[in-house]
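[Q] Does anyone have a clean structure-token version of this?
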Amino acid sequence: MIDDHPDLKSFVLLVPDGAADLDRADGLSPLAGARTPNTDFLAREGVSGLMQTLYRDLPRESMVAQLGMLGWDPHLFYPHGRSSCELLALEQVRPAEAGDLTFRANLVRMDGSTLVSYSADFIASPVAAPLIARVNAALREEFPDFELHHNADFRNTLVIRGARIDPRHLRCPEPHENHGVDFHLAQLIVGAEPAGRALAERINRYLARAAALLAGEPANALFPWSASQAFALPPFAEISGCPGRAAIVGFMDFLKGIARAGAMDFERLGNGRPDTDYRAKGAKVVELLAAGYRFVVCHVNAPDEASHMGDRQMKIDSLELFDRHVVGPTVAWFQAHPKRLGGVMVAPDHFTNHRLGKGRADAHSLHPVPFCLWNGTDRDGVQVFSEDAALHGRLAAAPVSHLDLLRILGLREAAVPRQVGS
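[A] Here you go.
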């Protein structure tokens, strides 16, 4: 029986996105103020520490953090934006190849030249998808190398085949950071090199044509951003040494892209908001463990989104639901099957400081995140899980690199963890 096989150790990484926070109310962060008995159990029965997940020279975002947490060095594999990774979530679409350029492309609402909604008031797919089809049908002949693909709701991906432009040579404003700002679509994208300038002019002409086609609609313009090059990864089994099946449980398109590129299974559940289906995600983790998976990642975006909404209580609520419905069932399953316990780690991917920063990216600070690990053997005396408690953990004297997470978890062969800067 798989559940009780003594040699079949399994490992779990639980990621409450953006859970860590610099904000304090009565001396407590949202993480410290939340009731999280199951995560506290992991800290009490295991070891805690600090982990560096972000870099000064790369965007402060989840994809950078989580690539490294899963063993892929983002300095080698981050494609300078998420869009080519998110394109992989569309399994019916040909992935970006060498020389292709991709963009996240929001359907937005403009009032004249003023951006008034980065999401076209959260337009739903049944309304959005026909608008994308209209643009494709009308502009395919004039722009044969442009492909516009609908992801979900206001989110789309623009692919330019054979562009052969470094995405860093294009300046693309981010719509969610620029509400109320005036933009002329004919000049939206700016190129830094001669070839980049020529491509930027074509893209801007495409956007002007699209806006004319969408006039009077709930979404009346396209807004491309996050230019990205082709995305590829070596298989997870190859870089991790994982001897069996591995899966990611989550919702975000970039996670599905990572899973597909890295030859991992992906289970799409819930949504990216605080009202996600925590219970279904926790149940899926247990189901995969019972099926013999050796490594399971479960990502919950809710704390990050609550932070960006500036709602401390919502962030606390999301952390409590994560603890009850994701961490709790995972702990209970290993308690019922102790021979299967390899390691369970809870680690946010980054800080999301809900009262700091002028925009979403500004809220992601470079501080090392707290983490805790339960493997049934190692303990360090820390009693609860929080940013401040983790400072007293065995692995807190100097932050470890997220590139060492798999070794610390026990999935890779034991090695001395690298410290940041070593």
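[Q] Thanks! Anything notable?
[A] The CA atoms of residues 249 and 298 lie 5 Å apart.
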